[in-house]
Amino acid sequence: MTVLQAPAPVPTRTSQMRASAWLRPQMLFAYVILGLWVVVLVGVQWIAPFDPLAASGTRLSPPNGEHLLGTDSLGRDVFSRTLYGARESLPIAVAAIIGAVAIGCALGAIAGFFGGWVDATIMRLADITMAFPAILLAMAVAAALGPGLQNALVAIVAVWWPIYARLTRGQVLSIKQREHVEAATAIGSGRWRTLGRHILPHSATPIMVNATMDLGQIILLVASLSFLGLGALPPSPEWGAMITDGAKNFYQPWIAAAPGLAMVSVTLAMNFLGDGLRDAFDVKGRR
Known about the structure:
Blueprint: H1 13-22, H2 25-47, H3 78-114, H4 116-130, H5 134-145, H6 149-175, H7 179-186, H8 191-199, H9 204-227, H10 239-247, H11 254-281, H12 283-286
Helix pairs in contact: 1-11, 2-3, 2-11, 3-4, 3-6, 3-9, 3-11, 4-6, 5-6, 6-9, 7-8, 9-10, 9-11, 10-11
């Protein structure tokens, strides 16, 4: 008796394009850079050669064999402070984007699904928030709360949530008109169940892509608040605070260059990752 075997599935053009999007040079660059920073976050205490808060050399020493990126105005190793700065800047930025996405998506989903006065109230609040430049509103909130990274986190979430509220609302308005949502409603699915199981999962891709690309901007915003004295407090090795120290020592550019290049690397990697995610999940648009 001959046993017939099913033919192996033939990769479709869509799956091939999606696979190629994950292996683009920009994505590989993002993998490498983000992987290196993850290693730094986990093992900085073994990687950094010096204590970031203690003087370890001559003041304002240029890069040399002992201090790869020189020392700052207090004789602290700039390379070690830059590595430890990742533990200050990156977790705050990730927490800020998670908070903004959670609040914005919840309010946007409610506004788009229920409509009426609920929609009008939430969207007018979002419009009022977005009417102010992000940096100015964040400065005002942080100044009212007082300096500190935790208060900077609250300020950034307060500024950034309307972006995701508007994005989620648009997605919900589009998806709730589809046939599978109407079918779920017809068989008696509750309003909250319909929203949670049949609408929001189909809205996740653009939100995820936008959040990935916004992470780099939030890192810059955290550094900007610290640069203005509204974020990290001395002697914290936060990147924005280090740039502030470098601005006071104009003729020692290595003090500000190291944290600046660190922020550039993370921002570029997140932008490349966001582009790759968009191409991977939006194959039709890429084609």
